[in-house]
Amino acid sequence: MKVWILRHGEAKPQARMDAERELTAKGREEVLRSAAHLMGQPLQRILASPYVRAQQTAELVRQALGFTDAIVTVPWLTPDGNPHKVLEQLDAYSAENVLLVSHQPLVGTLIGLAVHGSLQQAQPMHTASLAYLEADLPLAGGMQLVDVRHVE
């Protein structure tokens, strides 16, 4: 299983609700720079948080890659999502190569849990940072962090 974890691009600081914050122009540029690192990768599914900025990020990546399948919106990829639950949910996709589009603090703690088996060793993830993990199964402490790319 190959899993790419992408934090959304820079978002506007305020909206009526946090879930409604949209990407800024800079955020869209950041996402496209990260998407370039996914070119040629064997992605089979894009899973995204329902928050607007994550949906916009996922759609930009989908278009940049020419990915024809629809984005799968899942409620367990929100900023305050449970990393243990994410790993459980990923089990259903263990035969696929997936991109997760989400938020901090979830992405950092998820990577820490997947690689180190601990929520205490979170991976720093800036806006539009992209992490690449591999494993046979999505297990706490059982995944290997292959690469992390931060947008400059």
What's the quick description here?
This protein is α/β, with parallel strands linked by helices and 152 residues long. Helices cover 29% and strands 19% of the residues.
What does the model show?
This protein has 152 residues and is α/β, with parallel strands linked by helices. The protein has one domain (2-149): Phosphoglycerate mutase-like (Rossmann fold, 3-Layer(aba) Sandwich), CATH 3.40.50.1240. The protein has four helices and six strands; from the N terminus they run E-H-E-H-E-H-E-H-E-E. The protein has helices spanning 25-35, 52-65, 83-90, 106-116, and strands at 2-7, 45-48, 72-73, 97-102, 130-134, 144-149. A six-stranded mixed beta sheet has the order 3-2-4-1-5-6, with helices on both faces. Helix 2 (52-65) links the parallel strand 2 (45-48) and strand 3 (72-73). Helix 1 (25-35) packs across helix 2 (52-65) and helix 3 (83-90) packs across helix 4. The mean pLDDT is 97. This is Phosphohistidine phosphatase SixA. Keywords: Hydrolase.
